[in-house]
Design brief:
single chain; about 230 residues; mainly alpha; two-stranded antiparallel ribbon; globular
Length: about 230
Amino acid sequence: MDANRLLEQFMGANRVNTDDSGNAQGNSALGGMLGGGFGKGAAVGGVLGLLLGSKKMRKMAGGVIGYGGAAAAGAVAYKAYQNWQQGKQVQTAPIATPADLHNVDPRFLPPPANPTAGQNFSLTLISAMIAAAKADGHIDAKEQTVIFEQVEKMSLDAESKAFVFDALRKPVDIDLLVSGVQGIEQASEVYLVSRIAIDVDHPAERAYLQVLVHRLNLPSDLVAHLDHQVVDA
C-alpha cells in the first residue's frame, strides 16, 4: 500500500493550480477548503467529502492552494506553529498564504519531503480525519454502506480500501491514534486535519476535540493559533 498516495486520494487532493486572481482551479477537497470554495458532500472529492456529507464545512483562511492535501495542511499547521513560537496575538496573527507553501519546515510535510515521518504518519492523518468525522455518531450503517460503495469505485488498491473500511468500522480509539504521533509538529497537523472535520457547534464533536488536545499534549495557545487558521464556510 502506498500510504502517501492514499492520503492524497483520501483528501481528494489532485494537484490544483491558481488563476491570475489566486483562485483554485481543479478538484481538490482540501485545496477547495484552502481556497474558500469547499462545497458539500461527495462533490468535494475524495473519501473526506463522503465522510463529511451534509455536515457544516470548514475552510482555511488565506486561500492557501497550489498543492492541496497533506502539503497544504502542513503549510497551514506550520504557519500557526510559527505564530505561536513568535508570541503573536491570536486575533491578529497572520494566516497562511500560497507563498507559505514554499517555505515549510520539512517536519510538517509527509514523506518524501520528511523521510523521518514514514508512511505511518500518512495513515495516522487518515485515521484522525475518520475519527473526527465519526465523533458525533452521524455515520450510521446506511451511510457507511454508501461510503463503502463509493470507495469501491475509486482507483485505490485493495489494501488501501481495506484500511479505510477497517477505520470506518472500528470504534474511535484516541489513545491508539495518538500513539503514532511524534513531536509537536505532527501533533499540530493531526489536530488541524481533525478540526477541519469537526462542527464545533456540536457538543459531542467539541468534547472530542478537547480530549484530542489533551491526548496530544498540545499547549492551549498553540491550539488557539491552529483554530485561527480554520473558519466556518
